[in-house]
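Database export, one record per block. Field names are fixed; values are copied verbatim from the stored entry.
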Amino acid sequence: MTPQRIVITGGSGFVGRALCERLVSTWPGCRLVVPTRHLPNARAVQSLPTVDVLACDVHQPAQLAALLQGADALVHLVAVLHGDAARFDRVHVALPRTLAAAARAAGIRRVVHVSALGVAADAPSNYLRSKAAGEAVWRQAEQVDGAGGLDVRILRPSVIFGEDDRFTNLFAGLLKLFPLMPLAGTGARFQPVWVGDVAQAIVELTRRDDLTSATVEAAGPEVLTLGQIVQRVGAMSGRPRPVLPLPEWAGMLQAAGMALLPGEPPMSRDNVLSMRVPNVAGGTLPGLSALGITPQPLARLAAHFAPARPAYQWR
C-alpha cells in the first residue's frame, strides 16, 4: 500500500515530528494532514513540504468527518501520561471510539495505532489500563467492518528516546542541578527505543501487506533498569551522579509533590504505578526486526549530551 493522503493525529508531538520527517522523505508525493487545536504547536512540521496543518479538535465528530475526507490512512499518536481516570478514558478510549466511527464513514483503509508495552485490562495504572481499552476499541471496530473494512495495525513501543524527548532530557536537567539523584522505581525495567526506529516502524506498518501479526512490539536492543538509564545519561552528559533508590511509598509522595508544580508534572503517582510492570518486549509478538529495522541503542544520544567544550583552551 502506498497511501496518497495520511492523517496523523498527534503529528505535532515528539513522535509525530519524527514521523512526518520520515514520511516526507519516504513518500514525497503523499500529503500529510496534521490536525491541531493550536496552530503554533505545529510549527516544527509546518515548514515540511507536503504537510498540511489544520486547525481541528479531534474530539469533535463533525470536525473529524471533514478532516478524514479523502484520506486513505490514519496514524493515531495522541496520548497522555498524566491525569485522573476520566482524562485517561477520554483520550485513550473515547477518542479512538470517535476516530474509528469517523474512519469507517470516510472509507479509511488502514489505521496505525500507537499503544504501549505492558498494556493490560488488569494493569496497576490508569495509563496502562486505558491503553489496553483503546486497543480493544480498534479491534472491535475492525471486526464490525469485517473483510474489506478497517485494517488496524497496533505498535507497542517501550519508552521512546531522542534528542527532543522529555524522558532522558528531564534526568539530564536534574543531574545538572543535584549532586545526588533520589529516585523511586530504580529497578523498573525498560527497553528504550529510538524515536527514529519508531517512526520507521509506523511507515512499515502503514505500507506493508505481508505482516504475520497486526500487533508489533517496538523495543531497543538493551534491557535497562531506570537506575541504569539515569546513570548512562549522567555519564553521557559528563555529570555522573550516585542514584539513591527510594521505596515506592516515597516515590508516591515525591510524585504528589511534583503534581503541585505549574504545568505538566515530570512525574505522577500513576507513572510510579506503571513502573510495576516491566516495559520490555514479551517475545511472543514480532518486533522491529520483523519490519527490517535494526534498533539503535541509548548510546545514540552520546553526541547530544556531550558536554560543550570551551571555544578556547589554555594548553
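Remark 1: The CA atoms of residues 10 and 78 lie 5 Å apart.
Remark 2: The mean pLDDT is 92.
End of record.
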